Amino acid sequence: MNMIKTKRFSLLILTTAVGFPCFAMQPLDDQSLSSTTGQDGISIGIGMDKIEFTQAAIIDQDGIKDPILGKNYSQAAGLVVAGPTGNPIQVQFLGHTPGSSTINAKIDTDGGNGTPFANIGITFAEQITGFKLSPFALYIASSNQVSSATQTKSIYNDLKQLVPGVAKIIEIGSADRNFEITLNQSQRPQINVQLGNVPQGYMVQFGGAIQSICGTGSGCPIAFVSGNSSAKFDFQAKATDQNNGFSLSGFHAGVAPLGIYIGNTGQSSKMNVGLNNVILGREGASSPTVFNGLANGSMGSFGAIGTSVKDLKVNINGL
Q1: Beta strands in 83-227, from DSSP E residues, in sequence order
Q2: Which residues does residue 236 pair with via DSSP β-bridges, in sequence order?
Q3: pLDDT tens string for the chain (319 positions)?
Q4: Which secondary-structure segment (H or E) carries 302?
Q5: Number of CB atoms found within 10 A of residue 22's CB
Q6: Of the candidates 49, 182, 53, 52, which has an alpha carbon nearest to the alpha carbon of residue 103?
Q7: Upstream peptide bond of 288 is cis (omega within 30 degrees of 0)
Q8: Where are the domains of the chain?
Q9: How many whole angstroms separate alpha carbon 79 and alpha carbon 56?
Q10: How many beta carbons lie within 10 A of that of residue 82, not counting itself?
Q11: Residue closest to 85 by CA, chosen among 154, 135, 22
């Protein structure tokens, strides 16, 4: 296996409501993996109604170099996901019933005729109808506000106010309109992960279908903030085919030498996408406040019926 050189970064989870036990793990080479057998694999059911955490951060310790301006920004900084008011972020599993599983995983291995691999198939219990995320936002934290290996810091003070040196850039959801994904009940989403050699061609392969994203009302509010200006709209996407939903078949993800990639093979099924109640202007202001000579105000709504993607590939490089 080739070593992949990446910039160092730290992943920090400050608070989580779900505790996981720790195990001593030993490396498993190809020969050991090929000789490992089981009785039709191992099936695991995980029962929970929500996941909750206060904030998570990706921290770049050595900054960046600007090839265009020729400047060197070498101070540490971080991208932080947190609740916009300092409250914990909750991921709720809709339809969960106490005492039943939420996520089912089947883990198996195969010798693969000399090219062994591990296969992890993940499905959602039949009673799970979707997921709901409480309001959250993405922030940039300066070098004075990022955590280190020896010290933990928060972007909020004890009064749940942002500390100096932190700026919000994206906010999704509101107190009365959460970000929600509804599953298609006849073709439930599936995630298949393969490690080692990957006969399926990708590390992660998706299947099944979803019904909508923010499908109720006008959608979920999203705000992009840059300095004192902002763009706000309500996002909504619904499967064009109401019976079969928006198919996830053909979508995949994985890790490459240059980072993480997400894509699909061939033509996807179709969705109706809407950007409703679009407002551009000064952050926190409403019409008729003037920004750069133009009054804030709604630009109306935009939408597209029957949109799809073909052979999509997105690469995400690390900090």
Answers
A1: 89-94, 103-110, 117-124, 130-133, 136-141, 166-172, 179-183, 190-196, 204-207, 209-213, 220-226
A2: 274
A3: 333 333 333 333 333 334 444 444 455 555 554 454 545 678 888 899 999 999 888 887 777 777 666 677 777 788 899 999 888 999 999 999 888 899 999 999 988 888 899 999 999 999 999 999 999 999 998 877 777 777 788 899 888 889 898 999 999 999 899 999 999 999 999 999 999 988 998 999 999 999 999 999 999 999 998 877 788 999 999 999 999 999 999 999 998 877 889 999 999 999 999 999 988 877 666 555 565 666 666 778 999 999 999 999 998 875 5
A4: strand 297-307
A5: 5
A6: 49
A7: yes
A8: 174-319
A9: 8
A10: 26
A11: 135
CA dist 208 and 212 (Å) reads 13
Q: How far apart are CA 180 and CA 235, in angstroms?
A: 11
Three-state secondary structure call for residue 34: helix
Backbone angles phi, psi at 30, to 5 degrees: -60, -40
Count the neighbouring beta carbons within 10 Å of the beta carbon of residue 59: 20
Q: How far apart are CA 60 and CA 58, in angstroms?
A: 7
Using only the alpha carbons of the chain, give its radius of gyration.
22
Other Cβ atoms closer than 10 A to 231: 16
Residues in Cβ contact with 28 at an 8 Å cutoff, skipping those fewer than 6 apart: 36
Q: Return d(Cα 135, Cα 154) in angstroms, integer.
A: 18
N-term to C-term CA, the chain: 23
The Cα-based distances of 270 to 125, 136, 171, 190, 240 in angstroms read 25, 28, 27, 19, 6
For residue 97, the number of C-alpha atoms closer than 13 Å in the C-beta half-sphere is 4
The residue written with tokens 């989870």 in the block is: 13
pLDDT of residue 291: 57
Where would I find the beta strands (DSSP E) of 229-270?
Answer: 229-239, 246-247, 251-256, 259-264
